Amino acid sequence: MGSTKQLIFLYGKREENTARLSPSLKNNHFSVQDFFDLETLESRLSEQPFALIFTAGSYGAIDDLKKLKQRLNSNFDSLPLIIIVNEEDNIEARIAAANAGADFFFRKPVIPHQLIQCLRQQEDLLRAPSPRILILDDKTRRLESYHQFLNQSAVETLLLKDPYALTNALDEFKPDLLLMECDISPLSAKNISQVIKQSFSWKHIGILILTNQPDIAQQNIAIDCCADILLIKPVGPSHLLSVIKNKALRARASSQTRRNLDHSLREIEFQ
Predict the structure, then answer these.
(1) What is the CA radius of gyration of the chain?
(2) pTM above 0.70?
(3) β-bridge partners, 82
(4) What count of Cα atoms within 13 Å lies in the side-chain half-sphere of residue 9?
(5) I want to staple 180 with a disulfide (CB 3.0 to 4.6 A). Which of 78, 85, 136, 140 is the partner?
(6) Mean pLDDT of each 10-residue bin along the chain, 271 residues long
C-alpha cells in the first residue's frame, strides 16, 4: 500500500458517519473529512478528493449531489469517485443516483469492508498504467486533433488510418478502448464492432463512437454496433478525457476479471 492516504469526503448525518463508516475508513488508511452540511462541503472543493461518499441517501441528498457536481465539473478536469449510500434499494432510487452522477450505489446499513473493497479496487485501477486508446480514423483524418490532445493528457494512443490493419493493431497495441467515427469508411462501424465483439481476446475493449448528428438514425447505428458510448460532437476536451479515462479503466477491470476467471478455471481443471 502506498504511503499517501487517499482523501475521502464523507457527507451525511453526523451519527451515521461517526458511528461506523468514518472510523472504519480511517483504520484502513484513508484520510477522511466529515461534512454535515452542503455549504461547508462546497467550501472545501479547492482540494480534490479521491472519493465523495453521500450517506444521506434521501432524494434531498440526490439534489445536493446534482448541485455539487456542477461545482466539481468547474473545479476539476476529472471527477472524483462518487458513491451513494441509500436507505431505499428500489429501481427509482438507483436511477436517481445514476442520473445524479453516482458511480456506485450501496444500501443502508452499508457493510464497511464492502465499501472499502470497492475503494481499493478503484485505487488499484488509478495506479495502473495510462489508458491505451486505439483511434481508428480513415482518409478524412477527422480524429487527428483528438489524437494530439490525448497524447498530451497522459493517455497512450495509437492513431490507425487503415481499418484493414485493425486486427494486427488490436493484438500488438492491446487497447482498453476503441474510438471511431459513426460513418467511418470503407468498413462500417458496425462491421468493426462485430470483429471486436466476436473475439474472446478483444471482447472487453470498450467502443466509443463520435457523430455530428444527434438523431435517431445515428443512435440506432451505435446500438447496432454494441457501442458503449455515443458522443455528439463537438465534444469538450475535458469531457472527452473524463469519459475516455473512466471507460478505459472499466474495460481494463473487465479484462482483469476475465483473466482471473481463466486462471481459476485452469486451476480447477487440473485439480
Answers:
(1) 21
(2) no
(3) 52
(4) 26
(5) 136
(6) 77 72 90 88 87 73 76 75 86 84 86 89 73 82 81 85 91 91 82 86 86 75 76 78 76 63 58 58
